[in-house]
């Protein structure tokens, strides 16, 4: 027989809390579809415009029939470009179908969560395990463990639920951003620049400077070689790519200033910077903390005259710029594809550990530290008592000798009782006794440590170490879990307090009383004390 699940015994899945972390998971396929459609539109617009220009040129040509060969060559060139366009569109169409399939599978995966009525349902455990596998694969891909991620993806059967292809593309482009003495830097930045061209609308929407920084690095590598040909190539590259970017930035700034000047109620001078420097302050503020492209290009021009050994331009020639570019590209790739900068494992763990972290999880450590301090104080006190008694005896002898008494002998100092040997062969003294007393108290604390064995924060050698870095849990309403039954105590099952101060749920205590000899006695399972059920007090949750 199929086992049935009591949906009332366990709460329903918290859909809002679970789906809060699933936005990148669901949004990524649609971002990829939009990017693919933009690429198709750009290719169609460019190639069809070129073909149309060729046809118009041939239709309006007045050349004699002897130029037929030229016309045929032009048509052949257009046909080749259109065939290449067809192949490219076929590839994009296949990618689109794959992305649509991925979106459908992910939608079905999220839809399955809405059909689960209880967290006790085995289907919820299966869904949660699949989600955990997704989070682990995401962490492995971000850390470069691609083989382990591929193995887990294959064994769990979740190829459409993870972004293996996307991370492979990001890793390939990031790996190409490496310095090399045999290259001029252009070929190393080629893949990243092609990616920027493909995602230019999205990069412009976030005011990204990634493409400008990449082209700066190409120029720097050309200037680093310092041959006449590379220096001329650097000047040509600056004019072709960097100066137009500077002009575009200044044009956008001027447009922003014109829009601000046409506002019916313009901001006050305090907001604009005031006085003659208002425009300049506003212009600098619109660019953020980064220097303007004009200032950066001015410094780039100095590289034509200064070699890499020049300290004035050491930051531009420094090899660490490649590492900065790799980190910058990865952050922009995550931003464009709606991926969080941190692994989902970190986000889920920090939120979960923070919600479970309570002072009670570390109460035993605080008590142990206090017991150790007591032991040290008791030991120091015993030593001080022995030293003080000896000092007082010497002081009395000195006083008697000063008064001229006949008996000037120094009495034997009263030492503490001699050390005795226990049955275990351990010497005992006042200091040892004080230390042993504190150690015994510490042992009682350890013995009385009844932390929740199911709490991951109470596990000091596991997740408890990670939980030290997250804030404490904040609950507007207290939630108390019975240590005996493991269920949350509510109004229907309120907490009851024993005379010794320990609190359990009514249902758990009623079950203990029902199993007792007289049916009215409750025995605390933690201390062994017995009490009458009538002596229990009802507690109220605030």
From TrEMBL:
Xref: SMART domains: CRA (SM00757)
Family classification: Belongs to the FYV10 family.
Main location: cytoplasm
Residue ranges occupied by any CTLH domain in the UniProt entry: 192-230
Species for this entry: Tilletia caries
Protein's name in the database: CTLH domain-containing protein
GO cellular component terms attached to this protein's record: cytoplasm; GID complex; nucleus
Alphabetized PANTHER family for the sequence: E3 UBIQUITIN-PROTEIN TRANSFERASE MAEA (PTHR12170:SF2), MACROPHAGE ERYTHROBLAST ATTACHER-RELATED (PTHR12170)
GO molecular function: ubiquitin protein ligase activity; zinc ion binding
């Amino acid at each position: 027989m199929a086992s049935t699940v009591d949906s009332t015994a366990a709460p329903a899945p918290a859909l809002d809390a679970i789906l809060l972390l699933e936005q990148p998971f669901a949004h990524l396929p649609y971002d990829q579809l939009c990017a693919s459609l933009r690429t198709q539109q750009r290719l169609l617009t460019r190639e069809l415009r070129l073909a149309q220009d060729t046809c118009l040129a041939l239709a309006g040509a007045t050349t004699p029939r002897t130029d037929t060969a030229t016309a045929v060559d032009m048509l052949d060139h257009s046909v080749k470009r259109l065939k290449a366009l067809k192949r490219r569109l076929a590839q994009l169409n296949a990618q689109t179908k794959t992305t649509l399939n991925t979106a459908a599978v992910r939608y079905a995966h999220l839809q399955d969560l809405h059909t689960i009525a209880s967290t006790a349902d085995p289907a919820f455990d299966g869904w949660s395990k699949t989600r955990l596998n997704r989070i682990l694969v995401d962490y492995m891909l971000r850390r470069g463990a691609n083989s382990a991620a591929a193995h887990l993806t294959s064994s769990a059967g979740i190829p459409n639920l993870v972004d293996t292809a996307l991370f492979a593309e990001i890793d390939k482009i990031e790996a190409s951003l490496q310095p090399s003495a045999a290259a001029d830097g252009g070929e190393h930045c080629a893949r990243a620049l092609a990616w920027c061209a493909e995602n230019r609308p999205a990069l412009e929407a976030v005011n990204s400077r990634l493409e400008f920084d990449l082209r700066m690095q190409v120029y720097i590598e050309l200037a680093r070689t310092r041959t006449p040909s590379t220096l001329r190539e650097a000047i040509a590259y600056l004019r072709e790519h960097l100066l137009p970017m500077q002009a575009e930035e200044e044009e956008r700034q001027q447009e922003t200033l014109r829009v601000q000047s046409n506002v019916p109620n313009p901001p006050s001078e305090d907001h604009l910077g005031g006085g003659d420097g208002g425009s300049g302050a506003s212009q600098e503020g619109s660019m953020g903390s980064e220097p303007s492209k004009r200032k950066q290009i001015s410094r780039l021009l100095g590289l034509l005259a200064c070699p890499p050994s020049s300290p004035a331009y050491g930051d531009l020639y420094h090899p660490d710029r490649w590492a900065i570019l790799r980190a910058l590209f990865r952050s922009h790739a995550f931003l464009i594809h709606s991926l969080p900068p941190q692994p989902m494992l970190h986000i889920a763990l920090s939120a979960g550990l923070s919600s479970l972290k309570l002072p009670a999880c570390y109460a035993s450590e605080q008590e142990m530290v206090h017991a150790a301090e007591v032991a040290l104080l008791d030991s120091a006190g015993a030593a001080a008592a022995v030293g003080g008694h000896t000092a007082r005896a010497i002081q009395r002898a000195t006083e008697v000798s000063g008064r001229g008494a006949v008996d000037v002998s120094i009495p034997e100092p009263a030492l503490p009782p001699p050390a005795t040997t226990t049955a275990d062969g351990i010497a005992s003294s006042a200091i040892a006794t004080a230390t042993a007393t504190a150690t015994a108290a510490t042992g009682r604390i350890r013995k009385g440590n009844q932390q929740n064995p199911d709490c991951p924060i109470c596990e000091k050698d596991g997740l408890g170490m990670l939980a030290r870095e997250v804030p404490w849990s904040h609950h507007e309403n207290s939630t108390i879990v019975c240590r005996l039954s493991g269920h949350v105590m509510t109004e229907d099952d309120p907490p009851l307090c024993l005379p010794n101060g320990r609190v359990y749920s009514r249902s758990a205590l009623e079950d203990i009383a029902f199993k007792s000899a007289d049916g009215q006695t409750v025995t605390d399972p933690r201390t062994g004390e017995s009490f009458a059920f009538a002596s229990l007090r009802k507690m109220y949750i605030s």
